[in-house]
Structure formats: structure tokens, C-alpha cells
Amino acid sequence: MSQQEDETNLDPHLSFSPGFLAASPELTAWRAANTRPCCVLQVGGFRPGGEPTASHLGLSPVMRADEDWPVDLAGQPMQFIAQLNVAQAPWRPAALQDLALLQLFVGEQFIESGSEAGTYAIRTYPSLEGLAAREQPPFRERAWIAQGVEARWQAPQDDHPCYDDGDMVLPEGLATFPDEAHGECRSGTKIGGYATSLQHEVQFYRYELNADGEWCSSPLEPRYVLQIDSDGQAGLNWVDGGIVYLGRHPQTGVWSACCQFH
């Protein structure tokens, strides 16, 4: 049945736009105040090109010849998770404009430590020149990824925040987060947009008490840039359908990671 035929069988008293229920005035106003572009990563489902610098989960990451494989606080080789060729993305946020490639590695205590520094490594490259594939060295823990899969970027899409996002804006006349807006935040591995929270507002560092005795964000707190979601194609499962978030400090440029799961 075609979309046109399908829509003719729907309740004629309902209003539709391209196959969907028309948004209420409240949701329309909320979207207008809370929309950012994002690019979602398609993992698998296409014929891989095999380029070493392509985006992928769990294949061999590229490195410079003079680089060592990252190790954790115990001196153990970290597990390679993801390589994102952001230069190939049809859109990317400002925090990625100076980069061509980004990689995530995690150590044995990444989850148990609450994503403490030294339990993960975020490597970035401004250029793809001089990079060659490197094999994952042996590690002691269970593998996070079951099989390596090449990935590619989808076209840019509008994204919207979760109810607990600190950047979420309530437009004039709207007192609370509209029920219709639940599910408007895109899931999956993506750059830009808003963080898809699973437990609470995404926070990379614990709140701190200032001189006035008030709780405030840590001066180390970065801005969210991208997320790496659990993925069935690669067999990646952050504990229980979790997501790892990566952020970059707007002044120092330092990267941080944190994780939430169900």
C-alpha cells in the first residue's frame, strides 16, 4: 500500500503533514526554541569501502607511526571503540570544525570508575595525512565490541533536547516540558544536536560548592559535542543499552567522556 493510499484510510478529522500528526501550537513553539542540527552515523547496512580512515566501530584505528597505543592507569592496552571521520560528515558542529578524525578508546575501569580521567582516551587528528591502520593489542577484559563494522554519515537532521537538558528553553506561555516532545531527541551515534540522556541531565563532572555555598558546574565541565550509542550491528552494549558522551571545553579545548545506561 502506498503512503497516499494509506493516508486515505485514516480518520479524515485528523490533520496530517507528510504522514505524521500535525504538531500542536505548543510543540511548534517549543521546537522553534529548541532545534539544532545533527548528523547520525549509519553503522553497517551498506557495502564497505575498506578505507582505513573511514568511520567505523571496532575495526583497526589509524595512527601516526610515532604514536603508541593508549594504555590505562594500570598500564594495560585500552580497547579501541570508535573512529569517526568527521571530515566526511555533511555537517559538523563548531567544536569539530578544526578536526578531520576522532577516536575513542576505553580502559578496564572506564565504567566502574565513573569515567575518570585516565580510564579512556580521545584522540583527534586535524589531518588524515600520515595515518596508517594499527592492530588492537591483546587486552584482559571482555571485548566491548563483538565485530568491527564500517559506518557512514547520514544527511543532517533536526534534533531536539530531552526534558532534563540544561540547554532546553521553555518558550513564553509554556510552563513545562510538553508531553509531545518526549522522543524528539534522536538516538544513535551522532555528532551535534543534543545529548540523549538515559538517567539524568548529561554532566561530565560533579557539581562543586562555590565560595557562597552554592552548587555550580565544575570549571572543567565541557560542552557536549557527540555521543556513541550502543549498537546491535557491532554488538556494542554499554552495560545496558547505554551511551557514551564526549564533550569539549570551549576555552581549553580539552575533551572529556562520560556514560549513562538503563
Question: Outline of this structure?
Answer:
With 262 residues, the protein is mainly beta. The chain has helices at 3-8, 25-33, and strands spanning 16-17, 20-21, 36-43, 56-57, 62-63, 79-84, 101-106, 120-125, 132-133, 149-153, 157-159, 190-192, 208-209, 215-216, 223-229, 243-248, 255-260. Strand 1 and strand 2 (20-21) form a beta hairpin.
Q: Give me the CATH architecture, please.
A: Roll
Helix share, percent: under 10%
Taking all Cα atoms into account, the compactness measure Rg is 20 Å
User: Per the principal axes of the C-alpha atoms, what is the gross shape?
Assistant: globular
Tally of individual helices: 2
Mean pLDDT across all amino acids = 92
β-strand number: 17
Helix-strand topology string: HEEHEEEEEEEEEEEEEEE
* Domain tally: 1
Query: In terms of per-residue confidence, which ranges show pLDDT below 50 for 5 or more consecutive residues?
Result: 1-19
Mind summarizing the main beta sheet?
A: 11 strands, antiparallel
CATH superfamily: YwqG-like
Distance between the termini: 37 Å
CATH class: Mainly Beta
The CATH topology name reads: Hypothetical protein YwqG fold
Structural class, from secondary structure content? mainly beta
Percent of sequence in beta strands:
25-35%
Please describe the topology of this protein.
Elements: H1 3-8, E1 16-17, E2 20-21, H2 25-33, E3 36-43, E4 56-57, E5 62-63, E6 79-84, E7 101-106, E8 120-125, E9 132-133, E10 149-153, E11 157-159, E12 190-192, E13 208-209, E14 215-216, E15 223-229, E16 243-248, E17 255-260
Organism: Comamonas serinivorans
Protein name: DUF1963 domain-containing protein
Pfam family, one: DUF1963
